[in-house]
Amino acid sequence: MKNSQKGFIVPVLLVVISLLVVGGGVYVYYSKRSEVPAVVDTEKQQSNQIQQQTTQTPPATNKATSSITVVSPSAGERVSAGSSFLIKWDSTNVSNRVLLTLHLSGIQQVIAPDSGADITVPNSGSFTWKVPKSFDELNSTPVDLDYVAYITINDAQNKNIIGQSKNFTIVPANGLKTYSDTSILFEYSSLLSVGQSDGAVILNHSIAYKHSYACDFKGDAPLLDRFTDFGVSIKIVNQNLKTYLQSSSYPSWDYVSKNIFKFGSWDGYRVTQGLEGCGSDVYYFPVSKNKSLIISRSLIPEFTTAPDTNVQRLPGIITPYQNEKIFAEILSSLKVK
Question: What dotted CATH number matches 177-336?
Answer without folding.
Answer: 3.40.1000.10
